[in-house]
Design goal:
The chain contains 5 helices and 6 strands; from the N terminus they run H-H-E-E-H-H-E-E-E-E-H. It is of the alpha+beta class. It has a 6-stranded mixed β-sheet. Strand 3 and strand 4 form a beta hairpin.
């Protein structure tokens, strides 16, 4: 994984480290859960709009299980939010994703992810 810059908040450093660590290291009730507010607002092209950290932690397992590497392309950080553009290496190729975060007391409170869902599935995403 190409690392985030030193300007990235610690919560995002930890979040992307978990995404890239592989399914063997993933615990949906472990470190990832501690990075999220309980009523996390999530929005993505396949899952739609969802609320709740526990559901997100279960849902992200499929991504973690299929991604073998993340390459950070660009990142922007503000006082209460960040945007990250990256490529995820999936079983059949790369998928470009953009994630937009909002923070509350050092935790992720909102996560909106954008990608081409047909390409994601074609490249082996689940």
């Amino acid at each position: 994984m190409s690392p985030l810059s030193k300007a990235a908040p610690d919560v995002l450093q930890r979040y992307y480290r978990i995404l890239a660590a592989g399914i063997e290291a993933f615990d949906p009730d472990g470190e990832l859960r501690t990075l999220l507010v309980d009523d996390l607002e999530f929005e993505g092209p396949i899952a739609g709009k969802r609320t709740g950290a526990a559901g997100f932690c279960q849902g992200v397992k499929g991504f973690i299980a299929t991604v073998s590497d993340l390459e950070i392309i660009q990142e922007v950080h503000g006082a209460d939010g960040s945007a990250i553009l990256y490529d995820a290496r999936m079983p059949a190729g790369l998928v470009r994703l953009a994630e937009f975060f909002r923070f509350d007391n050092g935790k992720i409170s909102t996560l909106r992810i954008h990608y081409d869902p047909a390409d994601y599935v074609r490249q082996g995403g689940r």
